[in-house]
Amino acid sequence: MSSADVGPAPDVTVVTVTYDAAELVLRCLDSLRAQELGGLRAEVVVVDNSSRDGTADLVARERPDVVLVRSGTNLGFAGGNNVALRHVRSRFVVLLNNDAVAEPDAVRRLVEAMDAAPADVAAMAATVLLADRFRAAAPDDRDVVAGPDGRWVRDPEGDVRLVNSSGNELRTDGYGQDRGWLADAARHAPPREVFGFSGAAAVLRTSALREVGLFDERFFMYYEDTDLSWRLRLAGYRIEHCADVVVHHVHAASSTEGSPFFRFHDTRNRLATLTKNAGAPLALRVIGREVLTTGSLAVRRRRWDLAGPRARALVSWAAMLPHLLTERRRIGRTARTPRRVVERLLVPATAGFGYRA
Predict the structure, then answer these.
(1) In 3-state terms, what secondary structure has residue 198?
(2) Nearest CA-CA partner of 80 in 207, 202, 224
(3) Per-residue model confidence as pLDDT tens digits over 51-60
(4) C-alpha–C-alpha distance, residues 136 and 296, integer Å
(5) Phi, psi of 16 (to 5 degrees)
(6) Alpha carbon separation from 172 to 55, 129, 177 (Å, rounded)
(7) Among 345, 118, 324, 110, CA closest to 233
(8) Each residue of 272-308: pLDDT tens digit?
(9) Long-range contacts of 152-159 (CB under 8 A, 24+ apart)
């Protein structure tokens, strides 16, 4: 990061973490090169998580204007971002997935929105749309996706854009979800206030990060943004949605939804997030239910494909408990907002369309 530590501080630092995604990250960087900054000084930092496909060399060759950090190991989303966040000198930092493409005014609008926001706003989530286009599904269509506004099929000529996220919500059953998942973007008009930001595309206030800490690197990936959002909330900060900032996201391009890898990290990190941040009644209720559900899947239903990753997640969560409980005590000592007050922001656990990105 030596080239990032000399000269005048930029107004904003844009961080993207990549792993074995050469073509995706170049498209992402092309969108950042095309940003209309309006005089802002921006610095782009790419953290390569020890890619095996030549991503780092390609970025170094094709984009010498960015700061490239080569990690010797795969640190995941959490650790990869922290490599850059530890050295950020700008007032604001924008996180952008390597499989996302930002509209030309995205960075400028995020900075302007944060500049205009009260000091207790620590982060703003962008509007993240699915990169695919859709049309209304016909009765005989296959591969239909169902959202709150209708049923859709992918169509390159379609005129419908679906929402990936307008920030992260937390449900009363302890699950996180993308707000607006699969909603028609033309009809999605949520409140400005949102529980948390999505790491796919958001701007954060650097001073707030210095106060509450960075991502928990033990998470590797999934729920690390919800955990950090919750810690910001407990510290007295708020998080908002910047509706007019649009990013297009290739959903789950970096990992496979429903895979054992996903199920393991999603389950373990959900429990870890609750252990650190939730009030005891909520945390104990969710953890107890997870133990019972995993046992039922294994013993009664014999669904080893589902029970296996969840059982491994419970074992890993138990191994993390000393760290999690230490963090819980630390967070509690410094909290300016009681846990019960933050939990008023939780949304009902309905059989809706939420999905944890």
Answers:
(1) coil
(2) 224
(3) 999 999 999 9
(4) 39
(5) -135, 135
(6) 40, 25, 11
(7) 345
(8) 999 999 999 999 999 999 999 998 887 766 777 778 8
(9) 152/182, 157/133, 158/133, 158/134, 159/133, 159/135
